[in-house]
Amino acid sequence: MSVTLAGTIIQQINGQPREIPRQLTPYLPIDPQEECLGRDEDLRALASKLDHSQKVVVVNGLGGIGKTTLAKAWFQSVLRQYEHFLWIELAGNDNHDGQQYAASFIETIAWHPTLATNLQLEPAAPNEPPEARFQTIMNALRQLKGPNLLVVDNAGAEMEQAAIRAQMPLPPEWRVLLTSRNRLNGYEPMPLDRLSPEAAAQLFRKYYTGDCPPAALDELLREVDCHTLTVELLAKTLENHFGSLDLPTLTAKLRRRQLADPDLQRRISSNHSKEETEVYVHLLTAFDCSGLDAAERLLLARFVGLPPGNAFTAAQLEEWLQVPAEERRQLHETLDRLDRKGWLTRSEGPRFGLHRMLQQAVGYQLTPGMEEWAVLVETFTQKLNFDVSTNYPLLFPWINYAEHLLGMLKEEDLETAAASRLMNNLGAVIEETGQYERARDLLEAALASDLKNFGPDHPTVAVRQSNLANVYRNLGQYERARDLLEGALASAVKNFGPDHPNVAVSQSNLANVYDSLGQYERARDLLEAALASAVKNFGPDHPNVAVRQSNLANVYRNLGQYERARDLLEAASASDLKNFGPDHPNVAVRQLNLGVVFLNTGDKEKARDLFVQAHRLFLKQLGEQHPNTQTAKEWLDNLP
Questions:
Q1: % the chain with pLDDT above 90
Q2: Buried (b) or exposed (e) across 190-227, using 16+ Cβ within 10 A?
Q3: Would you state the pLDDT for residue 627?
Q4: Cα 231 from Cα 284, distance rounded (Å)
Q5: 116-to-132, 224, 471 alpha-carbon distances in Å
Q6: What is the crossing angle of helices 294-304 and 328-340, to 10°?
Q7: 267 pLDDT above the threshold of 80
Q8: Residue 220 has pLDDT above 80, yes or no
Q9: Residues 6+ apart with CB under 8 A from 410
Q10: C-alpha–C-alpha distance, residues 545 and 325, integer Å
């Protein structure tokens, strides 16, 4: 086990080991007696599978068939038997073509808001890629003595990847259950079928208290093939029509199963299997948005822009939708009406959600776009905004929100300035996770949009060029990075004048590329100018100054000017200690670079001490497999 895991799983507080809690993630329980109707036989079959299989078990079936409810009922019935348990919910896809806008399983584990904390792991480092963080967390789970329990709800086809399967905890220490619409290779399958007619009738009568003749109900249930979600939603719909709609009329309406818009029918058929298309046609027939008022339609349209499979508090919606204080009561009333009518689900908190399948049915009808989602685009753009002092991992949970929203926008909406700002901020944050290709794609799209909207000389274009160039440099495409940054620097000087902070940023970024290309004198001249500008604009103790000092020191070292490099790195290290504290990875970077300088001047003992300190700090903050940790160890191992 790595020092990081050994030190974090078994930490000492006041001389006593810290106990890892039994419940590792939040979980919203259900009432199995009320919500898991007609599934007793399925529960017994699932329990038997899990007791006897040495593989991970996956409950698979149609969307809305009741997989999550079955898994929750079993989960709650066995919790007392396990030392530790966690429930991971993925916002998976509802499209037959496998398209997915939500965070992957790796990202969900890596940036989970409570899992790493409960495992007593150190906070994620600013530049730690999700794959490395995922491995650290999964390794910590595998170290836990059992019996333990893990459920992954709504898993996608990605779970077949060898990189994920190899990390999963397995029996005998763990019981692992997945739910999925996919038949996943390499797992023990547990197919879940539709409800029996008797159970479907019981479910319908639970939500509909009106006149319900058995023969009329049987006809309706046959029409929808006892599909769990459809039965529940139709019962709620009938209940909330307050007598204006009866069972035979609703059944006749469903039997037509012909949408008024042929193009809508084609779009549904192209996105879903034949079985799922029938379900969606039923949903769109029964859940007709034209019967809602304007406030209800707008709120539902905005729910479509939020990641599926989630529930949100009214306070979150107020913030994200930027609702003025005088309009918040109206929002609450609209939420209550949609809840009563069966469109939204309400859970503890209270939290409001729109079922994935109903969310997509709403999207098919209302076809929302930038007009409805502009406020969400602005909100998540701000959530992903950052500066030099931002702790990047705190922004990672918002990646899912931004990616879903961008994935839903129409092509013409993606070309707007608002969408470009969101793509730019999202790309810059994703770069910090190490996903350089994905960051490149987003930043290239943002740059193309802004060139079209503003022209090549606009200051915003220069910002996009600079951000994209940094990704190109990380990808080793130095010439492309240089060309962009030379253009960005010329634009910044033209628009702001030579002393503006934006100019210094462009100078520093371009200098780093020149350094990578071996053009040290050009890099030195730019960085000296950038450092002078940073000191003038921010003062000597600002983090921006430390970054410029560190970059310039690397160039001086490459030029053989070791004393100047040492002085700059010592100043940058002192600044980082003051601004961030002794445990920040930036401090280790300065220690490592300073150690190299001392080695160049022949002071091997100081170099060794600094390499040891840097390696220890990298190991603690980033883990054994991180490139920085390995680089520090190489310097240590190769000391003459």
A1: 54
A2: bebebbeeebbbebbeebbeeebeeeebebbbebbbbb
A3: 61
A4: 14
A5: 13, 43, 28
A6: 80
A7: no
A8: yes
A9: 369, 370
A10: 42
